[in-house]
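Hi support team,

I've been running sequence recovery on a batch of backbones for a student project. Most finish fine, but this one hangs at about 90% for roughly twenty minutes before it completes. I'm not sure whether the input is malformed or the queue is just slow. I've pasted the structure tokens below so you can try to reproduce it. Let me know if you need the job ID as well.

Thanks,
M.K.
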């Protein structure tokens, strides 16, 4: 038969052309001839081919289904819809479904609803997919794992993690592990750590093996909101599942505890790290200095050097700023000399706090020499430095050096005037 009538339409035929209609009619007449000869399986197979092959349009598929119904041929609609979706013809599947959904056997078939969840999810229509999902649940059936996961991914693609979480909690169904991860990540990043923790709790109680990322994203979300104790408890839970709490996570905890003034807890977490980096030391150092534990800060700085880590300008700026703020300018200048010995060049911020402290102490000549040193180092003073020097410099003394070396801001000109 295939040698007499070409089953697949030629590529040159458009769906709306008369030639296309003629070709479809010839194929449907072939179906009738096969039925008359008693070859019902071959007739059904030809109808299936018209519906599922990419060369045929959705209207051709609906016409073929109508023709089959009129001839008493029963079709496996769930299989046909699933085949269309699986072969990447989701748009055709949607149109075909719209044309056949009035049939009672279609609208109430759980397998059809499952296929349409896959279809609408693939088309980026999670709202339509959710309606079919809810219909399926009301009928007392559960969607397949692929359909459930596809719907979750459709919500994730639109950053609608809260709606995905609602679906997860309402249905009580377990998605694939990858969807668990996306759900926890999305809720954590959108400021919903409590919901993320509920998802993680369900994951662990259900026996789904977690990955490190599940704990990590949630821990960072808790730290970001100042819930450091909960984040530390989560890290301990993470350790219990055989995952290593990395340096970045530990530093985030240390920063949170230092910000809250809980230095003992910060130090305990700091000791978790086998090889803390300079940023971890700087974080704890800032906590000590902020609380006025300057001796502990010195010891931490010495330990940092003993471990082979070189303090950078940020490290020294933290301590110099504290000394200047507490009117211990000589200690701050000693730190500047230490920077010279270890080869760490000071930046504009360090010069600014030192010069400001010297001006407040009435040590104008030293401030002037330090300013000249900054210029010799090739550093460009910013407008804050300009305002500082103009406002602090004693009256009657020349300010021309400021005008030559700085580009004043509007506020700087107002001070000068």
């Amino acid at each position: 038969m295939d040698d007499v009538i070409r089953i697949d339409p030629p590529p040159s035929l458009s769906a709306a052309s008369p030639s296309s209609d003629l070709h479809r009619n010839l194929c449907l007449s072939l179906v009738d001839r096969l039925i008359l000869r008693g070859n019902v399986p071959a007739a059904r197979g030809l109808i299936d081919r018209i519906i599922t092959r990419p060369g045929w349009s959705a209207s051709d598929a609906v016409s073929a289904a109508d023709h089959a119904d009129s001839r008493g041929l029963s079709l496996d609609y769930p299989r046909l819809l699933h085949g269309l979706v699986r072969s990447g013809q989701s748009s055709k599947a949607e149109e075909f479904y719209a044309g056949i959904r009035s049939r009672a056997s279609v609208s109430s078939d759980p397998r059809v609803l499952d296929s349409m969840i896959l279809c609408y999810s693939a088309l980026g229509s999670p709202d339509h997919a959710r309606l079919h999902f809810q219909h399926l649940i009301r009928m007392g059936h559960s969607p397949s794992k692929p359909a459930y996961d596809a719907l979750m991914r459709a919500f994730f693609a639109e950053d609608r993690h809260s709606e995905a979480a609602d679906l997860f909690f309402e249905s009580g169904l377990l998605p694939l592990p990858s969807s668990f991860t996306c759900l926890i990540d999305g809720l954590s990043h959108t400021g919903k750590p409590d919901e993320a923790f509920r998802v993680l709790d369900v994951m662990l109680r259900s026996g789904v093996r977690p990955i490190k990322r599940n704990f990590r994203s949630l821990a960072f979300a808790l730290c970001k909101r100042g819930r450091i104790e909960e984040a530390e408890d989560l890290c301990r839970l993470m350790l219990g599942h055989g995952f290593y709490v990395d340096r970045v996570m530990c530093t985030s905890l240390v920063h949170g505890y230092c910000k809250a003034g809980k230095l003992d807890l910060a130090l305990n977490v700091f000791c978790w790290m086998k090889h803390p980096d300079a940023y971890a030391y700087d974080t704890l150092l800032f906590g000590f200095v902020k609380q006025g534990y300057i001796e502990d800060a010195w010891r931490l700085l010495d330990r940092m050097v003993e471990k082979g880590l070189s303090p950078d300008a940020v490290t020294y700026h933290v301590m110099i700023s504290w000394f200047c703020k507490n009117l211990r300018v000589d200690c701050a200048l000693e730190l500047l000399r230490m920077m010279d010995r270890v080869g760490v060049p000071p930046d504009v911020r360090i010069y600014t706090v030192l010069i400001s402290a010297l001006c407040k102490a009435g040590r104008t000549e030293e401030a002037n020499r330090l300013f000249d040193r900054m210029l010799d180092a090739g550093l460009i003073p910013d407008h804050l430095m300009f305002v500082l020097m103009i406002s602090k410099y004693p009256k009657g003394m020349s300010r021309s050096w400021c005008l030559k070396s700085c580009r004043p801001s509007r506020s700087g000109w107002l001070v000068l005037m």
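--
Follow-up from support: It reproduced on our side and the slowdown came from queue contention, not your input. The longest helix spans residues 18-36. No action needed from you.
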